[in-house]
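User: Can you predict the 3D structure for this chain?
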Amino acid sequence: MKSSILITGGLGFIGSHIVDALSRKPKDEVAVYDIRAQDSQSENIVMVHGDVFDSDKLLKVMRDREVSSIVHMVGFASIPGCRENPDTSFRLNVSSVQRVLEAMRRCDVKRLIFPSTAAVYGATNGPKAEERVSPRPNNLYGCHKLAAETLIRGYAENYGLEPTIMRIFNVYGDLDKEQGVISIFIRKTLSGEPIVVKGGNQLRDFILVGDVVEAFIKSLNNEVCCGETINVGSGVGVAIKEIAEMVQRAFPKVEIKYEANGESEYSIYADVSRMTHLLGCTPTHPKIGIPTFIEKCRLRYLGTTT
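Assistant: Here is the predicted structure, written as structure tokens:
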């Protein structure tokens, strides 16, 4: 039996990679509902131009497509951006979730895959973050994502929804769409600017976008992970200064400038036990994946010379 999947906000960084992977799985019928979409159809993928806040159209698409699962990728994934634009953050990270949940309730759609964030953990004492600890976000992005998680759990308790909440760590692997530190460093290098590292000893968990996609797709038809919260990371901490040094090894001419970090440094990386056991995922080790990605970027823009 074919499953009908709706991906809201499917043309963003991670969403577009999920769509690309599902396009190679013809047994799945996929509707991509995005405000930037052009109405077109290709194989098993249907593009639908639509705003998640247009409830009538969202309901119509869900009913017409007989949607059985939703991957909700609408969001505002920027810590400084959310701090500067709190209304936008709330609208995209919380209100959009409420709209989708209400449409699911009215259409009796049960399955939801939701991308949350490691930012819900806050400045942990860890550094290994486990899903069972009480979240204590210390920025607005994390607060709003935690509010969305709470909404989802409320609908699950009251209306029988079957959600899987994916707490995603630092994703890399797409220089054109990624806004994380790895791609920022590479873009600075390509433009001839120095890399500025603030502090640098803090450890972060970096996961390849393809590994994130694998986790999402494996969760879609996996009843075991219904109702679960799952970290999506590599399980390895890498210092920010190491990232800068990896970039410098590929681009020897780049200058690294170290500055004091105005904020207290803390380290965080994922406990990936649930990701491994429930989804069967083995993420790429970042000290293999990151240099490989940097080299691909170097070859793409500079060819074989350094």
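Residues 86-107 form the longest helix (22 residues). The mean pLDDT is 93.
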